[in-house]
Amino acid sequence: MSRRANSEGSIFKRATDGRWAATLSLGAGKRKSLYGRSRAEVSAKLTTALKAKQDGLPIVSDQETVRTYLESWLVTVEPSVRPQTFRRYEQYVRLHSIPVIGSVRLSRLTPEHLQRLYSNRISAGLSPMSVRHLHAVLHNALGHAARWGKVARNVADLVSPLRAARLEMRTLSPEQARRLLDAAQGDRLEALYVLALTTGMRQGECLALRWQDVDLDGAVLSVTATLQRTKDGFALQEPKTARSRRQIVLTRHAVNALRQHRARQLEERLRCPYWQETDLEFTTYVGTPIEARNLMRREFYPLLERAGLPAIRFHDLRHSAATLMLGSGVHPKVASEMLGHSQIAVTLDLYSHVTPTMQAQAAEAMDALLASGSGTT
Length: 377
Known about the structure:
- It is a single chain.
- This protein has 3 domains: 6-54; 66-158, Tyrosine recombinase, N-terminal domain (DNA polymerase, domain 1, Orthogonal Bundle), CATH 1.10.150; 174-361, hpI Integrase, Chain A (Orthogonal Bundle), CATH 1.10.443.
- It is mainly alpha-helical.
- The chain has helices at residues 39-54, 66-77, 83-101, 111-123, 128-147, 174-184, 190-199, 203-207, 252-271, 292-307, 315-327, 332-339, 344-350, 355-371; strands at residues 10-13, 20-27, 30-36, 214-215, 220-223, 226-230, 233-237, 246-249.
- The longest helix is centred in the middle third of the chain and has 20 residues, at 128-147.
- The chain is 50% helix and 10% strand.
- Strand 4 (214-215) and strand 5 (220-223) form a beta hairpin.
- It starts with 9 loop residues before the first strand and ends in a 6-residue tail after the last helix.
C-alpha cells in the first residue's frame, strides 16, 4: 500500500483492531494520530489536519464534542456582537442545541443530526420561526468551525429548516391611532407614544434618545444610538444598521409633545433628590434608563386598555407608522429613510399590504391628470 511522505502523514489499517488510522508529523518529534472506520473517513480527517497545519491553526482532537466546541465559540463570538444578540445565541446553544446534540463528536456531526434536532425542538413546542433562528446560529458557529479547520465542511449548508409562516403584523388604523394618542394625553410618557407613531422609530431608538439629539426649534431629531441592556447594565449601542443612523423631521404634534415632556421632566428632576443625570429624554422617576419590560407591563399595556385597543407589541407602533405613512401617499423612499431601512425594497416587502391602496391612489391621480384634457378634442 502506498504511503504519503512523512511530512504529509500516512494512512494504514491497524492489525490489532482493523481500524483505519493516520499519523501526521507535527515537528519537534511530535506526531498526531487520527482514526476512523474507513480509509475515506481517515483520509478526510487527515486532509483537514494538513490544511490546519498549513494555515497555522491548531489540529483539533477527534474527541471534541459539539458541546465543547459551541461553548468555546460563544466565548470567541461574544465581543463581536451586541449584548442582546449574544443572549439569543447563548439561549439557542445552551437551551436547545447542547441538550440534544451536545454529546456528538464535532467531527462526526451530520446533516441528519441537525434535522433531528430541529424536529425535536418543534415537538418540544419551539415555533418554526425560532427553529429558523436556531439554524442560523448553528450555521454561523459551524461556519467558523470549517474556517478554523475543525471540520471539513459546514453540515448546516446541507440542511433546510422548516419554512416559517410569516408573522401577521398588527397595525393601528387611523381611528385607532387617534384613540391611542387621546388616551395618552397627560401621560408622563405621552411624547414617547407620539414619537413612535409619527416617526416609526424602534423602541430601543426611542429609549436611547438624548436631548442633545433633538432640535425642537428646527423640528428635527437625529437617531444615533439604541438602548441595550448588557450584563453590566444599560448601554447606548450603535444603531441596528448604518442606515439606521438618520435624521427625522418631526411633526408639529411631536414637537409640542416633546416640549411638554421636557417641562415635565425638569419638574421631576427638581423634585427628586436622587436624580441621576443621563440626558435621556425618556427616563424613570429618578432619571435612569427605562427597562423595556417595565415599560410594556406598567405603562404601555395599561394605556392600550384605557384606549380600548387590542394588546399589541410596542414594535407594532412602528408598523402602524409605516402603514399610515404609505397609506396616506408618502413616497416609499421617504418612508424607508424615516424608518431607517437598509433598502427601499425592505420597506415595500414588509408593507406590501398597503400596495393596493397606493395603486388606487395612483389610478385616481392618473384619472385626475388625464381627465383635465377630456372633451377638448
